[in-house]
Amino acid sequence: MKILVADDSEMTRMILQGRLTQWGYKIVNASDGQEAWDILQRKNRPRIILLDWMMPNMNGIELCKRVRQKIKEPYIYIILLTAKKGKGHLIEGMEAGADDFISKPFDPHVLKVRLRAGTRITKLQDELIAAREELRIQATHDSLTQLFNRSALMNMMTRELSRSQRDGSSVGILMVDIDYFKSINDSYGHLVGDNVLEKLAVQMKQCTRRYDAIGRYGGEEFIIVLPQCGEDEIVRVAERLRQTVCNQPYDTGINQIPVTISVGATWAIPSEQNCSEEDLIRVADTALYAAKHQGRNRTVVYKFIKDNQKEKK
Fold it and tell me: Is the pLDDT score of 177 beyond 60?
């Protein structure tokens, strides 16, 4: 656990550093409130602060208030370590956002147990954040492929169409389907079929940008949302993905399975064309059906037209 000691007294900082190092803590020192605040702006900031009340540039109370206003997560545990005494100062410090209050000169044993309490609280908060993140992932991601599930994907499309509507950019949609996937399941079993889906998910991530949205639409069908992409860009992405998949058989650990995909694609400029998520998916799905009808392992692109007619490209 890293602790920030913020005190304008060099002697106090030296005493605390000796004690805290002996107890196994890593120490970061600050000689005034502003320096302490600058340290808290860093990515790997301390999670516990031993904070003096009276300091130049920014006092301990001001720093407490700023921390509570500006830093929500992860939680920072603040102990005011000050020569001020009395119930009034204790109340003022706690109302400013401090978690604990110790008067100087401090008893090392009291400080040690208070730090243990702070450590427990920060660890519990980390566990809560991790559990919340796990629940969020479970609610928004497909359990097998770890891609967005259908509900989350539709929400991503809604946000992307709204953003494109505001800035006048285009948005592309790819609908990807594994060719003869039922035959893979029938011939090799569903566990191998699941492995194929997982490997395709990895390849889709590798062939797209980090801010493109990829989701499992259903079964062996996937949708990729490509912000700020028109016809040329969506064709390049679709063909790069298709060729990556078909160039080398999937190694499932037991079998080498040749896999190909068919891709239906479309794009639109929402600020110029009246389109919804369902409209774009409908056109991409029709293009995918055409790719299947033409022999599979190919990309077919249909341009989205404002009156909901599609134009083959």
Answer: yes
Q: What percent of the chain has pLDDT over 70?
A: 97
What single string gives the DSSP state of each residue in 263-282?
EEEEEE-TTTS---HHHHHH
Residue 10 appears among annotated catalytic residues: no
The one catalytic residue among 73, 220, 239, 278: 220
Task: Determine the average pLDDT of the residues in 105-115.
Answer: 91
CA separation for the pair 144, 135 (Å, rounded): 15
- Per the CB < 8 A criterion, the answer to whether 150 and 204 are in contact is no
Give the neighbor-by-neighbor strand order of the sheet with 26-30: 26-30, 2-6, 48-51, 77-82, 100-103
Length of the chain: 313
Q: Rounding to the nearest 10 degrees, give the CA dihedral for residues 225, 227, 232, 236.
A: -50
Name 125's bridge partners. Answer: none
Residue 313 pLDDT class (50, 70, 90 cuts): very low
For 154-190, b where at least 16 C-beta lie within 10 A, e where not — what string? bebbeebbeebbeeebbbbbbbbbbbebeebbeebee
pLDDT for 307 equals 55
Q: What is the per-residue pLDDT for 306?
A: 63
Ordered domains of the chain (ranges, CATH): 2-138 (3.40.50.2300), 150-312 (3.30.70.270)
| Confidence check: pLDDT of 310 > 50 | no
Cβ distance 169 to 225 under 8 Å? Answer: no
- Give me the chain's average pLDDT, please: 91
How many Cβ atoms sit within 10 Å of the Cβ of residue 250? 18
Angle between helices 150-167 and 108-140 (to 10 degrees): 90
